[in-house]
Amino acid sequence: MVSANPLFRGTWTAKKFQATVINDIWPEVLFFTLVATMVTLVSEKTSHNLGINTQLLTVLGTVLGLVISFRTSSAYERYQDGRKMWTNIITASRNLAQQIWIHVPVERKGAAGNTTALQNVIEKKTMVNLILAYAVSVKHFLRDEPGAYYEDLYPLISFLPRYANGMDGIESELLPLWHDEDEPYRKTTQPATEMERNSQSSSTATATRKEKEFDPEKALPTVYSERPLKPARNPPTTGILDYIPLLRFFKWIARVITRASRPKGRGKKRRYNEYVESQIPLEIILILSNYSAWCMRNGLVQPAIATGITGNISTLQDTLSNLERICNTPLPFAYQAHLRMSLWLYLFFLPFQIYNGFKYITIPGTAFAAFLLLGFLEIGQEIENPFNYDLNDLDLDYFCLAIQRELHLITAHTMPNPSDFAFSALNQPFAPSDRRTAAELTATDKEYHLPNENVEPGFASLRRTLVKGWKDVDVLTRK
């Protein structure tokens, strides 16, 4: 399967041009094309022939081709591993939600029976929502977006305890989940009323989120936040430096000069705080594990189901470790630098080696070779971390929204008694050999018998019906 072309999907914008690597490699391609032009013009217009022997071209070209191929393959393998890990998250989320929603009972007895059926349903739905919160928190974790105050994450975990001794406490007892860099917004002085919460929530949403047709955050709970929530998706802004990489060099020079001329003591003083970054996905896993342990202690789930719940939680935790490995293990800089310098030297001497055989065609030939080799090298560098906002990266927002839809689908299941629907007048269980409905089959207490046949009633007749049904299906479903 080939991914859809982002250049011609929807309204075309210059930003979509970044789906290719042309904007990253065109300065290098232009440089080597100018070198080829210089070699060709000097050799054609003067008495000096700049052509050299081509034996080195064959040897180095083969080695560079193999190395670049390995570089691209290893980067694509990381891309595929990232997709496999998100498949594991989706699968484990489905299984865990089904086990909690179906197998944890609503009607309870014993030590856990002092709650109402409605409270038990709310408890289970809350845990299913935390499974969605885990996937969303993994998305922000991989994009290096710390903290819990996001439009798509905070509504799902805002009710969790904030302090070591409950919802209220002192700053020194603040749990790791709620540590954030924005200290001034840490806590409000007085709790807001319901009207104030709704007003602040609507004003914050208006101020921080642009009006748009597709706004999946509207499906989340509307809760009060003591600080402005960051957007669910916050890609870096695109500037002229993304299209003209040469200007980054001048920006670096200006930054060096500015720092050198800055008087001592005029820099921004770093504010001290006790901020320690917390792994929010791990915090959510701990809450889910605590819930499964509570269910087992109170005998709410059978041992086999308890094993399944524990296994799915472990899968989520293992997947987080694997995603962290992919995200935080880049290719060694020495390998990347040596490969790029080797390729630059190869492309620099390429026109000298092919001029005697190609003449003026040396110019487009060098340009094409530079475009081809540099393009593959840049592709490998772009896809080795597939969790950012690039157009070629994995669509983590789509994965999270898919999990959200599926979890709501699971919790929409009302867990009916099989007898409530199995004996319906719309059910024909033995079709096509016997098209009587379940209501007709169970209308009398007599044993089953195949209609219009002189067969002994009972299970022998039922088995004959099932065999006849298999033969009919085998014939009817073949062309």
TrEMBL record:
GO MF: chloride channel activity
Signal sequence residues: none
Keyword Metal-binding: no
Composition bias, Polar residues: 187-207
Subcellular location as annotated: Cell membrane
Membrane topology term: Multi-pass membrane protein
Record has Ion transport as a keyword: yes
CC terms in the record's Gene Ontology section: plasma membrane
Key words of the record: Cell membrane, Ion transport, Membrane, Transmembrane, Transmembrane helix, Transport
Region feature (Disordered): 182-217
Comp. bias intervals (Basic and acidic residues): 208-217
Record-linked InterPro entries: YneE/VCCN1/2-like (IPR044669)
Record-annotated membrane-spanning stretches: 25-43, 55-76, 337-355
Protein name: UPF0187-domain-containing protein
